[in-house]
Amino acid sequence: MILYQSYVPKIYFIVNGSEDIDVLPNGLAIFSSGLHYDMNPSGVDPAMHQFKGILYTFDMNNPEAKPAPLSYENFDDSAFVPHGIDFYIDPKTQEVSLFVVNRGAGQHSIEIFHFDQANMVLKHRKTVVDEKISSPNDVVAVGPDSFYTTNDRYFHNSLLGMVEGFYPLKLSNVVFSDGLHAKSVAEHFGMANGINIDASGKYVFVGSAFAGEVVIFERTDKNDLIERQRINAGVALDNIDVDENGDLWLGVANFGILDYSSNFTKPCPGAVLQVKLSKVEGSKEPFKVDDIREVFANSGTGEFKCVSSALFHRGKLLIGNPFSNLMYCDVVAY
């Protein structure tokens, strides 16, 4: 692994989290905020109880403007707790949908919206609930109503969840849904976390958080997944972004997030890794790892703590945090 430090000037936006981020080709990004996630048996920081689930827009072409909350149509957001998100652009109609993991009270679900960009409104289309989607963390859309999602744990009790993660018991999995029926398609993860897909739609990338690996699967015509490759990042991983060159951008979590989630004054280091990939034809492993670069890292003691997501778009970088600020960077030395 080759690590590079990059200097990037920063702008901070004060929000109650920017857990996951996605962007449209025109540079308009959406990020999820207000996550309430119990990771520590000692409980959460009291401020988390006041969080409201919000989806914000951020224009990467106008970074001086503040993030703006989206409004909804035909959707009650009073118990909305957005987590992982993903855009889907219909290749036939160019209609834009937004898929959102909702960890709201009562039941976990995947919410599917039509995104009306002209009016900045999310028009609710469907709620997907299934017993196989038990602890969804992230989602990647593969059709107007179909998607893969990661269940990040088997046990919902926070103490048993910690035992599951640190033992590790490898009980989490990946589920495929066509919007009506769901099935498990990949299992035995030590916390399946971020998930994404390459531009061809053929390969799915899944972050195994506690193993510190990106697992690469090939999709079948029945939407099952066949493991083809593992990339060892050597650090705990959160969300995965795939840029327009096909490279991966990984949010690097730190086990300090457990203490941080229960007390926001505690430090929580974080980092961003770029994994440069090239396709390999006729090989058992579909990708060659050309380089792994540490693009950003901090001690987690200042204005920005932890890293849950990193989105690179045409020389600009957004870095998300599960419970606090969003950070924008112009990548000037790289």
Description:
- The chain is mostly beta strands and 334 residues long.
- It has a single domain, classed as 6 Propeller (Neuraminidase).
- Helix content is 4%, strand content 46%.
- The protein contains two helices and 25 strands.
- It has a five-stranded mixed β-sheet with strand order 6-10-9-8-7, with no helix packed on it. Strands 1-25-24-23 form a four-stranded antiparallel β-sheet, with no helix packed on it.
- Strand 13 (172-177) and strand 14 form a beta hairpin.
- The longest helix has 9 residues, at 158-166.
- The radius of gyration is 18 Å and the shape is globular.
- It starts with 9 loop residues before the first strand and ends with a strand.
- Ca(2+) binds at residues 19-20, 85, 137-138, 193, 238-239.
- GO terms for molecular function: arylesterase activity; metal ion binding.
Give the biggest beta sheet. 5 strands, mixed
CATH top-level class: Mainly Beta
Q: From the 3D coordinates, which CATH architecture would you assign?
A: 6 Propeller
Mean pLDDT: 90
Distance between the termini: 16 Å
How many distinct domains?
1
**Strand residue content:** over 45%
Total number of beta strands: 25
Find the structural class using helix and strand composition. mainly beta
The portion of residues assigned to helices is under 10%
Order of helices and strands: EEEEEEEEEEEEHEEEEEEEEHEEEEE
Low-confidence stretches: 1-5
Cα shape:
globular
Number of H- or I-type helical stretches: 2
Q: Looking across the biggest beta sheet, what order are the strands in?
A: 6-10-9-8-7
